[in-house]
What we know:
With about 325 residues, the chain is mostly beta strands. The chain is built from six helices and 22 strands.
Amino acid sequence: MNNVPLFFEPIFKERIWGGNKLCTNFNYNIPSEKTGEAWVISAHPSGSSKVKNGILKGQTLAEIWEQHGELFNKHHDHDEEFPLLVKVLDANDDLSVQVHPDDLYAKNKENQPFGKTECWYVLSAEEDAEIIYGHHAKTKDELKEKIASAEWNALLRSVRVKAGDFIYVPSGTIHAIGKGIVILEIQQSSDITYRLYDYDRLDEDGLARELHLESAIEVINVPHKLIAYEQEEIKHSGFTSKLLVKEEYFTVLLWSIDGSVKKELNADFLQVSVISGEGEIIIGDDKYPILMGDHFILPFPVKAYELKGTAKLIVSHT
Ligand code: ZN
């Protein structure tokens, strides 16, 4: 039972900026035309993914993490939380401009185990689609002034994005996903968001969403720093692996398979998102089909496996 991949059912979140692309692009059974997020690998208290195959079928990732530590090579105290969260987001409209705290701030001020460093792989983007990433203020005082006088255009950094782009968003970075972008997000398992600006939008009830300016200003990195990181690529016949980021909380890779590749599991567990194509994963004598829109975990007891087909995967681990 231990060397079986855990495939998960997505959990959907309706959002004022959501749309229907999680259905049109991935065939997910979304609750409405305002579906913003699919939490596809999650053990977070706000929504823990259920396994849809094997003898653990119906159990949540949070329960499995609690009861089957051996599947994750869990070697720390048993009260530690599952560290990562994978989502697909459909930004049919602009998301609010926001920032997340680091671990220390999350523990001290929010009594939560994790802050939120996140990263995005752009699955699709309309022409001229933009994100907000960072700001132009040189000091905290300048940041506060620009926020107080609502000089958003002068303050915020806009960046054009296209499908295939990768964006690393450490805690303390001001950011917003813009209209017309669908992303796969890998992040620390945290839900703490400080909203800075919401384009003065009102919801159905005529209410503006709450802002959290004080906390936001406390956690924003000033000045914004551009991070350079290596993105090395390894090629074999039928397989390419591109490192997207390797940092304190997660390592994320893009794998392109065209044929077959044999791999060893060199991590405590592997999170896999099939972002295009199809194929199969072979573990011992067992084969499991994989298809665009599938998300699964390869647990620690899977020592070796083979991937076959024509597919692109985003693979992440701690
Ligand atoms: Zn965020």
